[in-house]
Amino acid sequence: MAAYGQSQYSTGIQQAPSYTPYPHHGQGYTVPPYSIKTEDSLSHSPAQNSLLSYASNFSSSPSGQALYSYPSHGNSIPPGIFQGANGISSSAAFSPSQQDFSAYPSFTQGQYSPYYSSHYNTPYLTASNVSPSSISTATSYLQQEHPVITNQSPESLAGEYHPPASPPTPEKEQDSAQQRRGSDGKLRGRKRASDPAPPLDSEIERVFLWDLDETLIIFHSLLTGTFATRFSKDSAKAVSLGLWMEEMIFNLADTRLFFNDLEECDQVHIDDVASDDNGQDLSTYNFAADGFHSPSSGATLCLGSGVHGGVDWMRKLAFRYRRVKEVYNTYKNNIGGVLGSPKREEWLQLRRDMEVMTDMWLTNAVKALTLINSRPNCVNVLVTTTQLIPALSKVLLYGLGSSFPIENIYSATKTGKDSCFERVVQRFGRRAVYVVVGDGAEEESAAKKKNMPFWRVSCRADLDALSHALELEYL
Hints:
Number of strands: 7
Structural class: alpha/beta
Distance between the termini: 99 Å
Largest sheet: 5 strands, parallel
Strand order of the largest sheet: 5-4-3-6-7
Strand content: 5-15%
Shape: globular
Helix content: 25-40%
């Protein structure tokens, strides 16, 4: 048998000059239990057959190569590969007798389990595939790149992505899928700044109670000429603009908001009769022919909020208020879609003329409303002495729909503002801070009774000061 130093497992095995010498081991690694000699009686270099064997070539490889490379040498080894006292300097082929390693103990693959990873399907040579053709070229293994898992759901975009620490196995993939589902579930219950949900009424910290006429909008004083006299404006033109706006307000209220049907059945809030609504589909409902104005149903049925007519009539009344709510929510940001082409141009011209007449009063009011709406736990509430349906029409035509959800609009025509303020307090809770903004004595008196701060608006400068105070967070 040839000396041990003549094989690749030399006692003085060293790497190529660019590497430091490999230290001597008391017991060298040998081939796995499968036979080196194949059925075709061909002999092959031990380094070609197993991951347990040391690499047969320690020359430097390009950085882009795979992690594991097993070059084959055919039946000869180039000179100068191994260095040292027993280094091989001849390219003579080994004979079968020189490759007999039966005298050395064999080691099973189980003894070296750390060298194997269960994540890879090993393409290394085995006893069943050792043949001249299978080892004629170098066998390389390229580690697969981890797939990038992306989730386009909004929950996952707001969450944190934790990449896997190792290539996924079926068990790990199941675990990670469960973790992602659990994470998504947590995100669904979490508030997100990118997609904020409206706060609950109990979470509101500050409520601004607004008056409508002569506070947010200029309307009644235009009709009476008071505004023109006070601010030295053209009285005739001011009255003309007021009459023009009044016509548009009641035209919208009559044609789209059922004011002819609901004028004598006014409610404080849009949902006051919602309990009488059975949820019937109104897409094909004929309001003109449902008998709401039958002789038996006179104005006496709507004398007060507690006086109800028959069950069938109350259901028809609830249908109308539900349709009003649908129209408001649909067109609160696009009232021109309701008016139509000719009326829309007239409305735009009227809005421009009124802004010039009032020195941009509405623009300054909207600025204050926008500042309040930008806060996470603040809300605007409208309490007006105008009937509910005309008040909704005013809000739409003056472009205030985006500042006031219909649920935040109250009519104090029948009950008075003191009663409406108490209702608002019951809705949002007594822990919230309430600020009343108005111009009249009624809202000021109601604010004092309930110990609420009152901000008087008597001119445009008061709106400017309010916006400034909101910007500085004094309110």
